[in-house]
Amino acid sequence: MALLDAGVVVDRRHEVIGRGHAERLVPLIAELDGGGRADTLFVGCGPGSFAGVRIGVAAARGLALGWRIPVRGFSTLALVAAGAAEEAAAAGGALVVMEGGHGQWFVQPFAADLTPRSAVRSLLPDDAILIDDALVVGNRAEAFVARRGAGRALPLLPDARAFSLLPGGALFDDPSPIYGRAPDAKPMGTA
After folding, report:
1. Which of 85, 130, 140, 162 has the fewest CB atoms in 10 Å of its CB?
2. CATH number of the 77-154 domain
């Protein structure tokens, strides 16, 4: 997370949390200058871990309500692409590949200007490697390039410092989770 003033990062926190998002998120925000208070909140809406995405969106909406400020969302994959903005511009675009759970990867190609070239998909690795972008970024980039046998891998995690590089079209109102794939649970049939 980062606190920005006119697009410049004035404070930030970055932790990779396996479990314990709910317990750690609000204290991390409180550690930022001024308790993290801002004029607008922006929240990564996923795709990502089911619980992590829901916790992040719920916390942002709750803080925005309590602080009486607007909250907007963005795709986490777009933030990963923004973290590789310079490389993506030089390569003519990039494919973001992130862990998707259940043996799948979340994949989404971005143009050189960081606009999405298609929607996010959740694919098995053997299907994902059919996408032919030369530059592959994300936490599964190295595995992707190794499996495909070609391309350049740039391992990245979402980093709020890249937020100001997101194109304006990447932001949306009324943030809610982006799951990236269909739910595992199915509704029960009627008896």
Report:
1. 130
2. 3.30.420
